[in-house]
């Protein structure tokens, strides 16, 4: 490899060296943590994506070493490349925080606030975004736009009411499949994702639009409303697939495979395969292989402890490790003082039975049987 | 009587045809440019002229031309932006309708200077008959050897293609125009890269307004320095103003930018005063996107100086007490006009024309319209005014293209200057449905003879 020019860029007072041509967003993601601006429409694996949702706006307080003038407007960090000596303010800029709160409000304006009945809840980027940057109430008092639900082919359902028009699915379909099948109809706040005259999407890789959708607009009909994501245990698995990489995440409950998705990294994007290609998966893997014996299970998928999906799971190897963070440890060695020990009253949650060792979902009967056996 | 450069011959009968235009001295400038001048010399003249883009932003045209990338073996394009869709602006239509050959001559010189062998006119879809006039003029010009291959034996080829848009205001934004011209959905591109580097079909492209390109003809004819002497300061040359609203003589006027706003409105040569002997209430001086000004700030700046019809004077005081030259759509509102209703009309326009690509504009324009509708129908709350202000503040500057700003500015200016009228609407819910706020304290500083 030839020598790459490295540019020094400072995001929120943290300096990092990145190759020329890197965007501000990717530089910030390299630093990681709260420094990385949120992104709803940008998807690093899709060419031309980004710039539309405006959640990743940042302030450039110093253009570059050569031209230190600040940029007059906030810029979309996902589409602005870094210059040597650039200084960027993200969470340290009041202007950015204010603008971002505005964008969140705009995005939620016509988006239904019915997360409890939405299938995407728990893994919805808009939900995370509004939790982090939004307000608890809305100032919008008018009727929201609504659309009818549409089936895009056998396995995918489109619910435009929830769509935030990030164009990710359009780019996915354009770049993964041969024939352009769908795009945007109309403009402004009544724009909608649509196929040409109700045509179905039947390409072998079209299922990936579900993975890229940041909200619950495109959902998997083989999984819709079957289960909540946080009740499922994500497991890395693979199979020898003739069309795709076959590297997936299985979402299990007990032995039952509820759904199959591609593996996603910490930014919610599809992980690369070891060969360095994006790990898109084919429809056969996604929709048809729903038996545990179709797959070679590699082990549990690491989920951030802070994600709601981690609820009820333990990070690391499920069933073999016991979490170190006990109440005693975090409470300066003091044992919990219980007014009443529930275990004196009920069989449920007996401390002798470790939750992570139970196979499948735990029911009252699990405890009853075990205690009977014991 | 001001200097007339563009519309000088507009009243000659039959000027639309090639024969009359040629007899009146047409295409002589093109001949001079192609035969006697080098490409650099033409660009230099345009730079010297100080010509500013007439499309709205007022960016110096010579500078724009000098930015164009010139990679080897890659064709370059000139695109004429005739997608004139701003409410209140109709100067380009007049120019194209009556002087199509002037535009073609300007395009020919500019294409030669920029090295564009395929030049496009992107005309608004609704201007169907104007497109036909242009098509006819192009056929005539081609027949007479001004377009086509090896023009005047210089070895320069130039074809002009007329492309009709499909009725979208957003396609007047240069990158959306380029997308539309390529046959795609008219969504503005994210800049950079600018069209001068990657424009039409990823080739270096210059997009200029109709009036800008037509003004190239007098610039080359007179010479850049002579042209720069007309006008004042950085507002050189002449500007077409399309005046409309409650005035006696609406129409397209060519001004040399030294005239005061007061003269422009009240002199018989131009607007001829407010219709029906009424009083002036407010004015949108540069097409619907620019901030509205109340009468007292329109005729005099905040410092008490006379305001003139030029780029600097109209924007004197920034957005706090000034406005913009914009695209030259001069809209006059008399004492009977309701600012709330006017703002609602504009907000509705921007909601309808937002492309829906980026979220602040897509959602914000609709929200503003709904709130304004509520106030207009007498159902508003006092907090709605602050809410409107907050919404426009969050749209402005946070969008991909200037449509977001254009949607935010009229609302911001209306609240800034006419807040009491909004409050009156909210406090007098029933009265506001039947009567008008009128002039109140925006006293007309000038007494119009009855």
Could you provide a short overview of the structure?
The complex is a heterodimer of chains A (374) and B (450). With 374 residues, chain A is α+β, with helices and mostly antiparallel strands. Helix content of chain A is 19%, strand content 18%.
Which key features would you list for this structure?
heterodimer, A: 374 residues, alpha+beta, Ubiquitin-like (UB roll), Alpha-Beta Plaits, 4 domains, 5-stranded mixed β-sheet, 4-stranded antiparallel β-sheet, globular, disordered C terminus, B: 450 residues, alpha/beta, de novo design (two linked rop proteins)
Structure description:
- The complex is a heterodimer of chains A (374) and B (450).
- With 374 residues, chain A is of the alpha+beta class.
- Chain A has 4 domains: 6-102, Ubiquitin-like (UB roll), CATH 3.10.20.740; 115-220, Alpha-Beta Plaits (2-Layer Sandwich); 229-310, no CATH class; 327-373, no CATH class.
- Chain A is built from 9 helices and 14 strands.
- Chain A has helices at residues 24-31, 94-109, 125-133, 168-176, 208-212, 283-288, 327-330, 342-345, 364-373, and strands spanning 6-11, 14-19, 57-62, 75-76, 86-89, 149-152, 156-159, 182-185, 192-195, 218-220, 233-238, 247-253, 256-262, 296-300.
- In chain A, the strands form 4 sheets. A 5-stranded mixed sheet of chain A has the order 2-1-5-3-4, sandwiched between helices. Chain A has a 4-stranded antiparallel sheet with strand order 13-12-11-14. Chain A has a 3-stranded antiparallel sheet with strand order 6-7-10, with no helix packed on it.
- Chain B is α/β, with parallel strands linked by helices.
- Chain B has 3 domains: 18-229, Rossmann fold (3-Layer(aba) Sandwich), CATH 3.40.50; 235-334, Ubiquitin-like (UB roll) (Roll), CATH 3.10.20.600; 339-434, NADH-ubiquinone oxidoreductase 51kDa subunit, iron-sulphur binding domain (de novo design (two linked rop proteins), Up-down Bundle).
- Helix content of chain B is 43%, strand content 14%.
- Chain B is built from 19 helices and 12 strands.
- Chain B has helices at 18-23, 28-36, 39-49, 61-67, 91-98, 100-114, 128-143, 174-181, 210-222, 224-229, 261-266, 295-299, 311-314, 318-321, 339-353, 359-376, 382-395, 403-427, 431-434, and strands at residues 76-82, 116-123, 148-151, 156-164, 205-209, 231-232, 235-236, 239-245, 251-255, 280-284, 293-294, 329-334.
- The relative contact order of chain B is 0.12.
- Chains A and B meet through helix 2 of A and helix 15, helix 16 and helix 17 of B.
